Amino acid sequence: MSDTERDIERDGDTERDIEQIRLLIARLVQLYDLHRHDEWIAAYLTDDTVLTSPGGTLYGREAIRAEISKVPDNGWSGVHLLGEPAITVTGSSAHALTDVVNIKVTEAGTYAVTGFGRYDDRLVRAADGTWRLTVRNRSIAGAAAPVAD
Amino acid sequence: MSDAQDVATVLARVAQAHGDHRDEEWIAQYTTETTIWGALAEGSRSVRALLGLASPAESHAVHFQSIPVIEIDGPVAHAWTDSFTVSLDPAGGFAITSVVRLEDELVRDGAGRWTFARRLPTPLLPPASPPAGRPAKVTGRQP
Amino acid sequence: MTDIGDIRTLIARFAYLRDRERHDQWADHLVADDFTYRAVDDPLPGGGGSYQGRDEVLAHFRAAASDHWRATHFLSEPVIDVAGERAHAATDFALLRLRDSLPAAAVPGAGAAAAHADSADHRYSADHRYSADHRYSADHRYEVAAAGRYEDDFVRDADGRWRFAARLVTHLPLGASRQAGASQPAGTEHSLAAGSAHE
Questions:
Q1: pTM (2 decimals)?
Q2: How far is the C-alpha of A138 from the C-alpha of A126, rounded, in Å?
Q3: Which chains have 3+ CB pairs within 8 A of B?
Q4: C120 φ, ψ (degrees, to nearest 5)
Q5: What is the nearest CA distance from C190 to chain B, expressed in angstroms?
Q6: Which of A76, B121, C94, C112 has the most C-beta neighbours closer than 10 Å?
Q7: How many domains are contained in chain A?
């Protein structure tokens, strides 16, 4: 294989990786919004995934699952609008930055923006070729950054 | 990566950097001395001056960008992106402060780097009352 | 480009053309002859309904056309699955529009001609700054008119191009707030314990 052919193949692999990561980020929030938490936790996290937000940090899939189980299921009540992620792939690791805007239904029965922020994600490609989230730092406008542990 | 994905990534990084008030970063990386920005600025220096008039660094905003429509024509890319800005107001509420159509032309240099040749933002504004005349005609490239 | 990339662009292009009321273009190039369109729980007057076939869908959108650009559909990142010559996508969206209640006279530049639904010529005047906030008045003049999810089916036609076979639009139910709002104590919106760990 020539160097050019190798470059083309490598570019194609990166393109596919970016595509798969975009899909992961999108699938995760869609499942979250429908309260299908077991699905996204099983499919897109690792046992050691770290989730950080202004409220603090959760370590590991089980801690995340335990916290999410406290969220009451009120049906489909909001959407997370995801902007185009900016993704960098380096071998079997990746970094993704995604703006997010929350839209919900207000008490007055109208739609409104109820928050915005950014997902700062680190991902790895597992042995089976699928991408998984290892770290998510979630910043929210107007909220203080989490205190370092 | 494909040219379309490269361009989409540039647009995303610019929007994120702009929202973070890291304007010098994206201006240095993605504009040149011939970049035309709207009707008011030409060249990186003018873009810097224009954005120097923007809201203060302590304000919080996101410039959400919908999926862009991108067309590649050799070393030239045309992109059409809808964008809105949400700001956190001092009272803690969220306000949508603009809705804009972005028309971009980017060029790729010999090193494969994409920079803006021009950006034309068209804001969504209330119609005049009473109407001032015939609606503006469409000019410029359309996807 | 990959099939997923092509379909993603198709979804974006459809929104782009619809919002600019270039209905003939999306009808000719982006949808199949037997394209069906159904909208459920649409909060906007005349927005709901079910339409069969390209011509019927086209007639529906043409009937709702206006001369002025007043709203834009914003798309979230779609979830796309491809299976041979068929594909499916789920894309969250929000429709943002001008708020009717705010007087045009309160806005700088209100004396300018109205922006046509498909206008590339409404340039910034010296009064308008390209700022991080795009503030044109002290009032917030935009609102979310609708939000929900598109469930789209696609088919690859004989020349290899993807087209919409069907679109189902489901809106966030407006009665959702009364259940959701009561469940989260005020001031705890950032607390993990309140369940916003992944908000």
A1: 0.85
A2: 23
A3: A, C
A4: -105, 5
A5: 13
A6: C94
A7: 1
